[in-house]
Amino acid sequence: MVQNGEGGVNVTKFISLKAASGAATAKLMERRNQHVPRGPFHVMNKFITHAKGAQVTDAEGNKYLDFAGGIGTLNAGHCPDGVVNALKEQLDLFIHPSFHVMLYESYIELAEELNRLAPGDHHKKTFFLNSGAEAVENAVKIARRATGRRAVVSFERGFHGRTYMAMGLTSKVKPYKNGFGPFPPDVYKLPFPYYFHSDGQSQKEVDAKAIEQIETFFMTVVPPEDIAAFIMEPVQGEGGFVIPSAYFVQQVNNICEKNGILFIADEVQTGFGRTGKWFGMEHFGVIPDIVTMSKSIAAGFPISAVTGRAEVMDAAEVGEIGGTYGGSPLGCRAALEVIKMIKDQKLLERSEKIGEIIESYYLKWTKELPFIGEGRRLGAMAAIEITAPGSAKPDKPLTVNLLNKIHERGVILMSAGLWGNVIRFLCPLVISDEELIEGLEVINAVLYEN
């Protein structure tokens, strides 16, 4: 779809909307409501039938451009050929003996790759699980085992998953935590810089205050010698794509090093090229002790990993970490193909290019549209914040309205943020310039019509 600067559609190429809804969708939705709890949410009440790259087709034959990427799981795009072929080959060999029963080489090979790719030149070890939340839970287990300490510290607006320890670390109450308590003890939260909502304070002032609050926390809540780990997203994902300064991240890391506290980088959403590097923490000049990863590690196939300093990872005794399906042969083969794909197709460089194109649009929007409070990005992890005109006050109703209109025109897009007023871009890194611009022009048209 190619448009002029403020709305008129000239040509539709990738998006093709035949019917907003229809009998097929209605019938499937009826079955969903009858047999699935209401709890699982949906960005769009559509049923996918097939997808490739950055394009998706639903049950009515409508074709969309995917700017949500399975909530960041599809950096390699839908159904990449190398991954699909590797999975077919693996299915002919064996499906799942369980690594805890009989070993297989792909598990070792993937661990070797991640040990090489994760930040730092030190000796690392890796083991595998199924989801980002499981990776976080196990990173905490390892940190406690390695240090002999009890407390774990996360940050306001952080999101670390939906299992109990992960929920405890997560900051947003609704919809993630409401009514599910009590949560695990010895979990604490500290402020995380949000420069757009700093009431006129400079970045330096915001950082200084946040660092000062850590020192106060040590004196008033938990002494540092009782803290096993700090866990931090390099860029807060569900929190609104909030990007800290390198200074802040480095200072937190320095405090950890000074006090024997392990630094865990939650790279579940920022990893595997989303920010223009293999891992988001590489932008900040910090080498974490432990890294958690999942989402785009295997093109949407469920697998997660915990990678860390060898001496830390070896703190757990035999049988203390793992899981029946952790590091399945299919997941390992898929992940190895994704790594090859990122290298061969230069998707790290592509991520930065995608981010630059998105930035060229949001710079225009922030100048000309009073309800676009800010645009921000790290690589292709980009977002715009919707606010009351001329202010920093979040406007969730307008955000919902804009997203509904964008969906109706064939672009899959999601919100984020503590107030639900951030529109986030998670395009597959294999998206072409033509596809990307068509989707951005759809968004452009909706924004200028508001």
Please describe the structure with a list of short key phrases separated by commas or semicolons.
450 residues; alpha/beta; Aspartate Aminotransferase, domain 1; Aspartate Aminotransferase, domain 2; 2 domains; four-stranded mixed sheet; 17% strand; disordered N terminus; Aminotrans_3_PPA_site; EC 2.6.1.22; 4-aminobutyrate:2-oxoglutarate transaminase activity; Aminotrans_3
Helix content: 25-40%
CATH architectural arrangement of the largest domain: 3-Layer(aba) Sandwich
Number of domains: 2
Instruction: Give the biggest beta sheet.
Output: 7 strands, mixed
Derived structural class: alpha/beta
Strand content: 15-25%
Cα-to-Cα separation, first versus last residue? 20 Å
Number of helices: 13
User: What is the strand tally?
Assistant: 17
Which overall shape is indicated by the principal axes computed on the Cα atoms?
A: globular
Could you give the order of strands across the largest sheet?
6-12-11-10-9-7-8
CATH topology of the largest domain: Aspartate Aminotransferase, domain 2
**What order do the SSEs take from the amino end to the carboxyl end, as H and E?**
EEHEEEHHHEHEHEHEHEEEHHHEEHEEEH
Segments where pLDDT lies below 50 for 5+ residues? 1-10
Mean pLDDT: 95
CATH class type of the largest domain? Alpha Beta
CATH-defined superfamily of the largest domain? Type I PLP-dependent aspartate aminotransferase-like (Major domain)
From the alpha carbons, calculate the radius of gyration and give it in angstroms. Answer: 22 Å
